[in-house]
Amino acid sequence: MTSSLSLDQVVACILISCIVCVAVVYPDRCVGVSCRSDLPGPKGLPFIGNLFHVWPYRRHMITWMKKQTHIYGKLFTFNIPVW
Known about the structure:
mainly alpha; single chain
């Protein structure tokens, strides 16, 4: 008995492999953002960066940035998709 993969299974395997590879290359930031090891900042998640950190303060970004300044100093880095 031979086992053959359907086209859907092959596409699913390729898609999962691509997602895993991107998550390995960008473990703590959004896709396409370069690593800033020279600046401190909150660690993000693959694909979404610091979106979960910022989301509760989405209407009050200055408040969030002031809190981060007290934690990391005057210069810090964070990243959010499409921003």
